[in-house]
Amino acid sequence: MKRRIYLLLLGCLFSVEPALADYIDARRSMHLKEQPSVNGISLTKIEVGERVEVLEGSRQTNGYYYVATQDGYEGYVYRTVGRITVTDETTFVEDTDHSPLAMDMGCEKHLVYGMPQPADQVLCREGYAAGYSYTYKIPLWVTYRITREQILTTGSDRQGISFRQDKTIPSDFRSKNSDYLNSGYDRGHMAPNASMDFSVNAQLESFLFSNIAPQLPDFNRDSHGSTGVWGRLEKYERRWIEQRGELVIIMGAFPGEEALTIGQGVAVPSHFYRVIVDPATLESIAFWMPQEKNTAHQITRYLASIDEIEQQAKIDLLSNITPAIQDIIEAERQTALW
To answer: Are residues 78 and 171 in the same domain?
Structure first.
């Protein structure tokens, strides 16, 4: 599988080019939104195979195209809904405008494979990029590209560092320490502190609440009597980075249909996912994990294909990769740890 992916990579990886689009052929079902936002009102549902006309000269707004359906609805669909048809040529268009803020701040390093899903605010940090939800008050996804040198560099330690509100988030939509107080849930890092300690600033940014989601203590921790799978996977991840030299990590929180909340409306995810990609070979390993206690010894039970995670979480991963390569990578399901 590694050789097959590598050979295909040589021929067509990132062989994508921006294009002025006439139509989009949906390759997955998606809601047509009244506004260009994940929380926009749904006007109708676009089904797989349906063709919609792209309006406004293919200009994107927050990663959304303004389109018209064949039955007369006009609204917004996210850019990864399908393939764009220009005259008689079909091209998968690489997104070069994830968010003006994200690109201006250099977020492309961490968003090399694209944004996993729309977010109310894209946050670009030194060590990671995050997509934050105003509705759920948690990061829906976090992604980062990290090297062996960064893992082996310790520029800071945790002593004296406290969790902080993210003041770049509008005050009404921030999570904060009081939301977690006496809730029974840990302030669970998405981008892990232990991987972000290569600089003082990167580690401080890992303690922003925009990088935090509620996790059961025995899911989050792998120490002091707890054997949480999330904490165990963080350790494996750092080991694999040391072994392979560089990895791209994509992780996310899935609140589910009727998420529990703590504090002032902070959603408790029912599941978390973690996708790890070796950019040198495009090998990947992926995990879909419900919040369960002390299951690190059963970590292989959570192995999944990227396709399976996308279907469960209703997201689109690796969207910047040519579809032929993407299909191969996303269908693969590891049967053992690396």
So the answer is: no
d(CA 277, CA 284) in angstroms, rounded, equals 4
pLDDT tens digits, 14-23: 444 444 447 8
* Number of folded domains that form the chain: 2
Q: What are phi and psi of 53, to 5 degrees?
A: -90, 135
Domain span at 60: 17-91
Q: What values do phi and psi take at 10, rounded to 5?
A: -60, -35
Listed in sequence order, the residues at least 6 apart from 52 whose beta carbon sits closer than 8 Å to its beta carbon are 23, 24, 26, 32, 46, 67, 68, 69, 70, 77
CB 131 within 8 A of CB 122: yes
Asked if residue 44 is part of any domain, the answer here is yes
Angular region, 104: left φ>0, alpha ψ -120 to 50, beta rest:
alpha
Count of CB atoms situated within 10 Å of the CB of 23: 16
CA dihedral 326, 331, 335, 338 (to 10 degrees): 0
Amino acid at 87: T
Residues 129, 82 share a domain = no
Model pTM?
0.73
Report d(CA 82, CA 174) in Å as an integer: 33
Residue 75 lies in a domain: yes
Which helix H or strand E contains 334, and what residues bound it? none
Residue 27: what residue type?
A: R
How many CB atoms lie under 10 A from the CB of residue 222?
18
CATH code, 38: 2.30.30.40
Statement to judge: residues 78 and 109 lie in one domain: no
What distances in angstroms separate CA 103 from CA 36, 248, 316, one per listed residue?
A: 18, 18, 20
Cα distance between residue 198 and residue 218, in whole Å? 27
> How do residues 159-180 score in pLDDT, each as one tens digit?
778 999 999 999 999 999 999 9
Three-state SS at 110: coil
d(CA 280, CA 107) in angstroms, rounded, equals 20
